[in-house]
Write a structure and sequence with these properties.
Layout lengths: L3 H10 L4 H22 L7 E5 L7 H7 L2 E6 L2 H10 L6 E5 L12 E7 L8 H11 E12 L4 H9 L4 H9 L14 H10 L3 E8 L6 H4 L3 H12 L11 E7 L1
Parallel strand pairs: 1-2, 1-4, 2-3, 4-5
Antiparallel strand pairs: 5-7, 6-7
Length: about 250
Protein backbone atom coordinates (compact mmCIF):
# COMPACT_ATOMS: atom_id res chain seq x y z
CA UNK A 1 0.00 0.00 0.00
CA UNK A 2 1.26 3.48 -0.85
CA UNK A 3 1.40 5.38 2.43
CA UNK A 4 2.51 8.70 0.95
CA UNK A 5 -0.23 10.73 2.66
CA UNK A 6 0.26 8.97 5.98
CA UNK A 7 4.02 9.50 5.83
CA UNK A 8 3.57 13.17 4.98
CA UNK A 9 1.31 13.81 7.96
CA UNK A 10 3.67 12.00 10.30
CA UNK A 11 6.56 14.04 8.94
CA UNK A 12 4.78 17.28 9.78
CA UNK A 13 4.75 16.43 13.49
CA UNK A 14 8.34 15.21 13.52
CA UNK A 15 9.89 17.59 11.02
CA UNK A 16 13.57 18.44 11.27
CA UNK A 17 12.60 22.07 10.68
CA UNK A 18 11.65 23.58 14.08
CA UNK A 19 9.04 25.99 12.70
CA UNK A 20 7.34 23.41 10.50
CA UNK A 21 7.20 20.96 13.41
CA UNK A 22 5.99 23.62 15.85
CA UNK A 23 3.18 24.81 13.55
CA UNK A 24 1.54 21.39 13.68
CA UNK A 25 2.51 20.51 17.24
CA UNK A 26 0.77 23.66 18.52
CA UNK A 27 -2.48 22.66 16.87
CA UNK A 28 -2.10 19.09 18.11
CA UNK A 29 -1.61 20.17 21.73
CA UNK A 30 -4.53 22.60 21.55
CA UNK A 31 -6.89 19.87 20.31
CA UNK A 32 -5.71 17.33 22.90
CA UNK A 33 -6.37 19.90 25.61
CA UNK A 34 -9.94 20.43 24.35
CA UNK A 35 -10.61 16.69 24.13
CA UNK A 36 -9.45 16.16 27.70
CA UNK A 37 -11.45 19.12 28.97
CA UNK A 38 -14.76 18.39 27.31
CA UNK A 39 -14.71 14.63 27.88
CA UNK A 40 -15.32 15.34 31.55
CA UNK A 41 -18.99 15.33 32.41
CA UNK A 42 -20.23 13.71 29.19
CA UNK A 43 -23.24 11.43 29.18
CA UNK A 44 -22.72 7.73 29.88
CA UNK A 45 -22.26 6.02 27.54
CA UNK A 46 -20.38 8.78 25.76
CA UNK A 47 -19.89 9.04 21.99
CA UNK A 48 -17.20 10.87 20.01
CA UNK A 49 -16.67 11.28 16.27
CA UNK A 50 -13.76 12.49 14.20
CA UNK A 51 -14.42 13.45 10.60
CA UNK A 52 -11.30 13.49 8.45
CA UNK A 53 -8.97 11.34 10.55
CA UNK A 54 -5.80 11.69 8.49
CA UNK A 55 -3.00 9.72 10.12
CA UNK A 56 -5.21 9.09 13.16
CA UNK A 57 -3.14 10.98 15.74
CA UNK A 58 -6.19 11.98 17.79
CA UNK A 59 -7.98 8.63 17.78
CA UNK A 60 -6.12 7.07 20.75
CA UNK A 61 -7.01 10.09 22.90
CA UNK A 62 -10.63 9.99 21.84
CA UNK A 63 -10.78 6.24 22.52
CA UNK A 64 -9.29 6.78 25.96
CA UNK A 65 -11.83 9.47 26.92
CA UNK A 66 -15.07 8.21 25.34
CA UNK A 67 -17.00 4.93 25.49
CA UNK A 68 -17.55 4.71 21.73
CA UNK A 69 -15.51 6.49 19.05
CA UNK A 70 -16.26 6.69 15.33
CA UNK A 71 -13.46 7.48 12.87
CA UNK A 72 -14.84 8.69 9.53
CA UNK A 73 -13.03 9.50 6.30
CA UNK A 74 -13.36 8.95 2.55
CA UNK A 75 -9.67 8.15 1.99
CA UNK A 76 -9.07 4.38 2.06
CA UNK A 77 -5.43 4.90 3.01
CA UNK A 78 -6.45 6.73 6.18
CA UNK A 79 -9.18 4.21 7.00
CA UNK A 80 -6.81 1.25 6.61
CA UNK A 81 -4.29 2.93 8.87
CA UNK A 82 -6.95 3.62 11.52
CA UNK A 83 -8.16 0.02 11.39
CA UNK A 84 -4.84 -1.07 12.90
CA UNK A 85 -5.68 1.00 15.99
CA UNK A 86 -8.77 -1.15 16.57
CA UNK A 87 -6.51 -3.94 17.81
CA UNK A 88 -5.68 -1.87 20.89
CA UNK A 89 -8.85 0.22 21.07
CA UNK A 90 -11.89 -2.04 20.87
CA UNK A 91 -14.30 0.90 21.22
CA UNK A 92 -13.07 2.41 17.93
CA UNK A 93 -15.28 2.08 14.84
CA UNK A 94 -13.75 2.94 11.45
CA UNK A 95 -16.19 3.88 8.69
CA UNK A 96 -16.10 5.28 5.17
CA UNK A 97 -18.36 8.31 5.38
CA UNK A 98 -18.71 11.58 3.49
CA UNK A 99 -19.32 14.62 5.70
CA UNK A 100 -21.54 16.27 3.09
CA UNK A 101 -23.91 13.27 3.01
CA UNK A 102 -23.21 11.38 6.20
CA UNK A 103 -24.75 7.97 6.92
CA UNK A 104 -24.42 8.50 10.68
CA UNK A 105 -27.89 9.97 11.05
CA UNK A 106 -29.07 7.80 13.93
CA UNK A 107 -26.22 8.63 16.32
CA UNK A 108 -25.76 11.77 18.38
CA UNK A 109 -22.31 12.65 19.62
CA UNK A 110 -21.05 14.30 22.78
CA UNK A 111 -17.94 15.54 20.94
CA UNK A 112 -17.14 15.90 17.25
CA UNK A 113 -13.66 16.77 15.99
CA UNK A 114 -13.21 18.25 12.53
CA UNK A 115 -9.62 19.46 12.17
CA UNK A 116 -8.20 20.84 8.90
CA UNK A 117 -11.04 19.32 6.86
CA UNK A 118 -13.61 21.98 5.95
CA UNK A 119 -11.14 23.88 3.74
CA UNK A 120 -11.08 20.80 1.47
CA UNK A 121 -14.89 20.73 1.05
CA UNK A 122 -16.68 22.76 -1.61
CA UNK A 123 -20.17 22.23 -0.17
CA UNK A 124 -19.53 23.82 3.21
CA UNK A 125 -23.24 24.31 3.93
CA UNK A 126 -24.01 20.59 3.73
CA UNK A 127 -20.98 19.76 5.86
CA UNK A 128 -21.98 22.16 8.64
CA UNK A 129 -25.63 21.09 8.49
CA UNK A 130 -24.61 17.46 9.00
CA UNK A 131 -22.26 18.34 11.85
CA UNK A 132 -25.09 20.14 13.59
CA UNK A 133 -27.48 17.21 13.13
CA UNK A 134 -24.93 14.76 14.52
CA UNK A 135 -24.14 16.82 17.61
CA UNK A 136 -26.06 16.30 20.86
CA UNK A 137 -27.77 19.42 22.23
CA UNK A 138 -25.22 19.34 25.06
CA UNK A 139 -22.31 18.32 22.84
CA UNK A 140 -19.33 20.30 21.56
CA UNK A 141 -17.81 20.58 18.11
CA UNK A 142 -14.08 21.24 17.78
CA UNK A 143 -13.10 22.85 14.49
CA UNK A 144 -9.75 24.03 13.17
CA UNK A 145 -9.32 25.55 9.71
CA UNK A 146 -6.62 27.64 8.00
CA UNK A 147 -6.86 31.41 7.86
CA UNK A 148 -7.34 32.57 4.31
CA UNK A 149 -4.84 35.42 4.43
CA UNK A 150 -2.21 33.86 6.68
CA UNK A 151 1.41 34.08 5.60
CA UNK A 152 1.73 30.34 5.14
CA UNK A 153 -1.46 30.13 3.06
CA UNK A 154 -0.20 32.79 0.66
CA UNK A 155 3.33 31.37 0.54
CA UNK A 156 2.04 27.86 -0.15
CA UNK A 157 0.51 29.06 -3.40
CA UNK A 158 3.84 30.50 -4.47
CA UNK A 159 5.82 27.49 -3.27
CA UNK A 160 4.29 25.13 -5.82
CA UNK A 161 5.00 27.23 -8.86
CA UNK A 162 7.31 25.53 -11.39
CA UNK A 163 10.97 25.49 -10.35
CA UNK A 164 10.16 27.07 -6.96
CA UNK A 165 8.74 23.79 -5.68
CA UNK A 166 12.05 22.06 -6.43
CA UNK A 167 13.88 24.62 -4.32
CA UNK A 168 11.38 24.19 -1.47
CA UNK A 169 11.84 20.41 -1.49
CA UNK A 170 15.61 20.86 -1.52
CA UNK A 171 15.46 23.18 1.50
CA UNK A 172 13.23 20.93 3.62
CA UNK A 173 14.46 17.56 2.31
CA UNK A 174 11.12 16.13 3.53
CA UNK A 175 7.83 15.23 1.80
CA UNK A 176 6.14 18.35 0.39
CA UNK A 177 2.77 18.20 -1.38
CA UNK A 178 0.11 20.76 -2.22
CA UNK A 179 -2.33 21.41 0.62
CA UNK A 180 -5.41 21.15 -1.60
CA UNK A 181 -7.30 23.98 0.07
CA UNK A 182 -10.29 24.96 -2.04
CA UNK A 183 -12.51 26.77 0.46
CA UNK A 184 -10.53 28.90 2.92
CA UNK A 185 -12.18 31.72 4.85
CA UNK A 186 -11.09 34.68 6.91
CA UNK A 187 -11.85 34.42 10.63
CA UNK A 188 -14.58 37.06 10.36
CA UNK A 189 -16.22 35.25 7.46
CA UNK A 190 -15.98 31.80 9.05
CA UNK A 191 -17.42 32.99 12.36
CA UNK A 192 -20.40 34.46 10.49
CA UNK A 193 -20.92 31.18 8.62
CA UNK A 194 -20.92 29.22 11.88
CA UNK A 195 -23.46 31.60 13.40
CA UNK A 196 -25.66 31.47 10.30
CA UNK A 197 -25.87 27.68 10.71
CA UNK A 198 -27.09 28.04 14.27
CA UNK A 199 -23.84 27.31 16.09
CA UNK A 200 -22.95 29.12 19.28
CA UNK A 201 -19.26 29.97 19.41
CA UNK A 202 -17.96 29.49 22.94
CA UNK A 203 -14.22 29.68 22.33
CA UNK A 204 -11.93 31.05 19.60
CA UNK A 205 -8.18 30.84 19.28
CA UNK A 206 -5.57 31.50 16.59
CA UNK A 207 -2.05 30.16 16.37
CA UNK A 208 0.80 29.21 14.07
CA UNK A 209 3.07 31.83 12.52
CA UNK A 210 5.25 31.29 9.48
CA UNK A 211 7.74 33.83 8.13
CA UNK A 212 9.67 32.85 4.98
CA UNK A 213 13.44 32.37 5.31
CA UNK A 214 13.32 32.95 9.08
CA UNK A 215 11.38 29.70 9.33
CA UNK A 216 13.77 27.80 7.09
CA UNK A 217 17.15 29.11 8.23
CA UNK A 218 16.85 29.97 11.93
CA UNK A 219 15.91 28.22 15.16
CA UNK A 220 12.49 29.87 15.01
CA UNK A 221 12.79 31.75 18.32
CA UNK A 222 11.83 35.07 16.73
CA UNK A 223 8.72 33.51 15.18
CA UNK A 224 7.72 31.91 18.48
CA UNK A 225 8.02 35.26 20.27
CA UNK A 226 5.96 37.06 17.64
CA UNK A 227 3.23 34.43 17.78
CA UNK A 228 2.91 34.76 21.55
CA UNK A 229 2.40 38.50 21.08
CA UNK A 230 -0.18 38.00 18.34
CA UNK A 231 -2.11 35.45 20.41
CA UNK A 232 -2.25 37.92 23.28
CA UNK A 233 -3.59 40.55 20.87
CA UNK A 234 -6.10 38.49 18.89
CA UNK A 235 -8.18 41.56 18.06
CA UNK A 236 -5.26 43.08 16.21
CA UNK A 237 -5.60 43.01 12.39
CA UNK A 238 -2.20 41.32 12.37
CA UNK A 239 -3.70 38.19 13.94
CA UNK A 240 -4.84 37.14 10.46
CA UNK A 241 -1.18 36.34 9.75
CA UNK A 242 -1.44 33.29 12.04
CA UNK A 243 -2.03 30.06 10.15
CA UNK A 244 -4.87 28.41 12.10
CA UNK A 245 -8.23 29.52 13.48
CA UNK A 246 -9.74 27.18 16.08
CA UNK A 247 -13.26 27.04 17.48
CA UNK A 248 -15.29 25.32 20.16
CA UNK A 249 -18.97 25.55 19.24
CA UNK A 250 -22.31 24.21 20.44
CA UNK A 251 -25.71 23.89 18.85
Amino acid sequence: MNNSKINLQRTLYASKNPTRRWLHETRYQWIIQQINQFAIGCDTPSYALEFGIGSGIYLPYLAKNFDEVFAADIEEEFLSNASVLQIEHHNLHVINDDLTKSKLKNISFDLILCSEILEHIKDLDSALNNLKKLLKPSGVLIITVPQRYSVIEICSKIAFLPLIVDVVRWIYREPIIEMGHINTKSSISFAKILSSHGFQIIKVDKFGLYIPLIAEFTSGNLIFTLEKWLRRNMKSPLSHLLSTQAYIVKR
